[in-house]
C-alpha cells in the first residue's frame, strides 16, 4: 500500500459531475484557509470554535483531494504574522493544532498521506513540535498525497532562511540563480503549486508561498473555510482547468 495513491472512483465520479477532468488535475493545490473567525462570530460563537470547525474541514478536503488524485496539498494553518493576535486565540490555536496532529496521525497514515511542515518550527511550543515531528517520521515512506502544513510560516521568512543558507554554504555570487534559492526553500522536493484557493473572499496572498506562487493560478471563493466542502474544491479545480497558463509566452 505504501506506493500508491488512494484514488477513489466514487470521489472521482463526483468531481467529474462538477466539471472536473480527472486526467489533467493540478499536481499541487495550496489552500489559504480563511474566515474561521468570521464564521464563528456570525453565529455568536467564540472564534476558536470556528478554528475547530476549520480543522474538521481540512481533514475532509485533504482526503477528497487524495481520493480524486491530487498529488500535493499545502494548507496555511498559522502565519508568521498571526502571533499578533490576542494571546488566548494564539494559545488555543496551538493546542488545537497539536491535538489535531496527534489524533489525526493514524488517519493520515492509514490513508497513505505523507506529512511535511513548512515554517520556522523552532518558534513553536515544544510539545507541538514533537507532535509534528512524529507525524513527519511516521509517514515518511508513504507515497500517497503529500500534505504540507504551513505553520509559523511566512513567505518572506522562507526566502530569508534560504538566503542565510546560501551564505552559510559560501556559494559563489556568480553561481547563484533562481534554482539556488528554490533548492533551499523549506520543501524543495515539493513542486510549485498549480492552483491556490483562498476562502472568505479576501483578494490577497497574506505572505503565503510568495516565491513558489509566481505562476500559480488563484481562485478566491466567498465561502468561509468551515463551510468549504469537496464540491467547492471540485469547482475550484474546474475553474482552474478553464484557465490558460502562459508563463509570459504567447
Ligand atoms: C483563518 O481564519 C485561520 C487563521 C488565520 C489561523 P481567521 O481566523 O483569519 O478568520 P477571519 O479572517 O478572522 O474570519
Ligand atoms: C492568512 O489569513 C493566514 C492563514 C490562513 C493561516 P489571515 O487572516 O492571517 O490573513 P490577513 O490578516 O487577512 O491578511
Ligand atoms: Mg483571516
Properties at a glance:
250 residues, 43% helix, six-stranded parallel sheet, globular, 8 helices, Undecaprenyl pyrophosphate synthetase, binds magnesium ion, single chain
How would you concisely characterize the structure shown here?
The chain contains eight helices and six strands.
Radius of gyration: 18 Å
Strand content: 5-15%
Helix content: 40-55%
Mean model confidence by pLDDT: 97
Low-confidence stretches: none
CATH H level of the domain at 25-155 and 191-215 and 230-235: which superfamily? Decaprenyl diphosphate synthase-like
Largest β sheet strand count, sense and barrel closure: 6 strands, parallel
Using the coordinates above, name the CATH class of the domain at 25-155 and 191-215 and 230-235.
Alpha Beta
**What name does CATH use for the topology of the domain at 25-155 and 191-215 and 230-235?**
Undecaprenyl pyrophosphate synthetase
Structural class by SSE content: alpha/beta
Helix-strand sequence: HEHHEHEHEHHEEH
Output the number of helix runs.
8
**Distance, first to last CA:** 43 Å
CATH architecture title of the domain at 25-155 and 191-215 and 230-235:
3-Layer(aba) Sandwich
Coarse shape: globular
Number of strands: 6
**What ligands are attached or bound here?**
3-methylbut-3-enyl trihydrogen diphosphate, magnesium ion
Strand arrangement, major sheet: 3-4-2-1-5-6
